[in-house]
Design goal:
The chain has two domains: 40 residues, no CATH class; 84 residues, 434 Repressor (Amino-terminal Domain) (Orthogonal Bundle), CATH 1.10.260.40. The protein is mostly helical and 137 residues long. The strands form two sheets. The protein has a two-stranded antiparallel sheet with strand order 1-2. Strands 3-4 form a two-stranded parallel sheet. The protein is built from six helices and four strands, in the order E-E-H-E-H-H-H-H-H-E. Helices cover 51% and strands 11% of the residues. The relative contact order is 0.12. Helix 4 packs across helix 5 and helix 4 crosses helix 6.
Length: 137
């Protein structure tokens, strides 16, 4: 590096360097910033990205239990067993014939690896914390 140091009061005050060297240093600083941002993002807990189609189906009034179950690739029988419920009960919840107790919904949410809030009626779902894949936050 060929910098010319300008002094003030006997102490270095300014460094004058060729423009190409200046640009190289700026590029290096930008890469360094990018690496720092990347590392910070990697250190954060991962947030599940849910496809927009899943969110839209729920917002359109489909059963959140059914939509999440299908998204997870489970059958009603497998979900029911994982939640400790009967298959007909899960079927009735999905069909809207039964609301499901808080205990049952909590067990279903746990089996689906989602929060109980994700199973709330769609009218309370307008301000989602989850970000649909393919849509700006």
């Amino acid at each position: 590096m060929s910098a010319h140091i300008l002094k003030k009061g006997g102490k270095p005050e300014w460094a004058v360097l060729p423009y190409d060297e200046y640009r190289r240093l700026l590029d290096a600083a930008e890469v360094s910033d990018d690496v720092a941002v990347y590392r910070a993002a990697k250190a954060m807990p991962e947030e599940e990205l849910v496809p927009a189609g899943v969110i839209n189906r729920i917002l359109d009034g489909e059963s959140a239990v059914a939509v999440w179950r299908e998204h997870r690739g489970l059958t009603q029988a497998v979900l029911a067993k994982a939640a400790g419920l009967s298959t007909p009960y899960v079927s009735q919840i999905e069909a809207g014939k039964r609301v499901g107790t808080v205990t049952a919904l909590r067990a279903i949410a746990k089996a689906l690896d989602i929060s109980l809030d994700e199973l709330a009626p769609s009218s309370s779902r307008r301000s989602r914390r989850r970000k649909p894949k393919g849509q700006a936050a």
